[in-house]
Specification:
Its main location: cytoplasm. It is found in: Cytoplasmic vesicle, Clathrin-coated vesicle; Early endosome membrane; Golgi apparatus, trans-Golgi network membrane. The protein is of the alpha/beta class. The chain is built from 14 helices and 5 strands.
Length: 327
């Protein structure tokens, strides 16, 4: 693993943050707001703009572009951000069901770990849009931590037992909406998006959305193929996690939002744990302790599309087109 610097050193050496000219950098971004009169910039204070500078390594033009996209995304998707708090019924259900789970401990680089068990998606209970809203709301709360602005996040998605029927709801349009909201319109640094035990149709969906991903993002995801969460090695301190690396993390995050309701108006009266489809990462033996590592080994090649996956992609595209025609 690469050496991970402490927060202040990392901000200076990796993000180009200079405390001596910090206010000048912020003001340069603020001065660009006049160039976009079509967008309502509802917040322009120093602390808020600083998030965008850190997310774009203090490139002022890129930081302003991200700031503009942040508010433009909200203007274009007004329904998503109505009653944008945890006591909204849709967001509340998603958080209660563990979308997302947020682990208490961080990885060895100080990044916060978000965990999703895809098979727990009850489509009669939660829409994909509400799950996306819950993720965005969680990120809004987490990004207030300056260390996370610097260190970033890791997203782990376990696709074990995720059915084709469930996958059929992941249309290109809503996947594009999610990518725009998370990649192009939010000031977060994602150090990795890890897929675990994904079936062929998730390979195919990934191929559909790949053109919308940035080059840097395309290089980051680890294709773990048939591995499940039990193949991960976790840090020693994670053994003592009250929720473990399981979907009980959703319960812990849900309860933490309830405790914080007086400050953020995030009231959650009930927090339940959905049935877990995989093995909790906290169950690995003490002999497997160490820094978080992916034991992909030779489980799969670096290419996401094999011949069989290509055939599957054409089949999936046929089904998508057929469903559009029937509608």
């Amino acid at each position: 693993f690469r050496f991970c610097r402490p927060g202040l050193d990392k901000a200076r050496l990796e993000l180009n943050e200079n405390p001596d000219i910090l206010h000048q950098d912020i003001q340069q971004v603020r001065d660009m707001i006049i160039t976009r009169p079509d967008i309502g910039f509802l917040r322009t204070d120093d602390a808020f703009i600083l998030r965008f500078l850190r997310a774009r390594k203090f490139h002022q033009t890129e930081a302003f572009r991200l700031l503009a996209q942040y508010f433009q995304y909200r203007q274009l998707n007004l329904d998503m951000f109505k009653n944008f708090k945890a006591d909204d019924p849709g967001i509340k259900r998603a958080l209660t069901d563990g979308f997302p789970g947020v682990l208490e401990n961080r990885d060895h680089c100080g990044r916060k770990i978000l965990l999703l068990f895809a098979a727990n998606w009850d489509q009669s209970r939660n829409s994909f849009i509400d799950i996306l809203r819950a993720i965005l709301l969680s990120l809004e709360v987490l990004i207030e931590d300056q260390e996370l602005q610097i260190n970033g996040f890791i997203l782990i998605i376990d696709w074990s037992n995720f059915s084709f029927k469930q996958a059929s709801k992941l249309t290109p349009s809503i996947l594009k909406l999610a990518i725009e909201g998370l990649q192009d319109s939010f000031p977060a640094r994602f150090g990795g998006v890890h897929f675990v035990n994904q079936p062929w149709y998730i390979h195919a969906l990934y191929t559909l959305i790949k053109p919308f991903l940035k080059d840097k993002t395309r290089k980051r995801p680890f294709d773990l193929c048939g591995l499940s969460t039990k193949h991960w090695v976790i840090p020693q301190e994670a053994q003592s996690l009250p929720w473990g690396l399981s979907d009980q993390a959703g319960q812990g995050w849900c309860q933490s939002r309830r405790k914080d309701r007086s400050k953020r108006q995030m009231s959650l009266k009930q927090c339940k744990v959905a049935t877990q489809p995989g093995t909790p990462l906290g169950n690995v033996s003490p002999g497997e302790q160490g820094w978080i590592a992916l034991l992909a080994l030779n489980a799969c090649s670096s290419h996401l599309l094999s011949v069989s996956c290509t055939i599957s992609l054409f089949f999936l595209l046929f089904l998508v087109q057929a469903s559009i025609f029937l509608k």
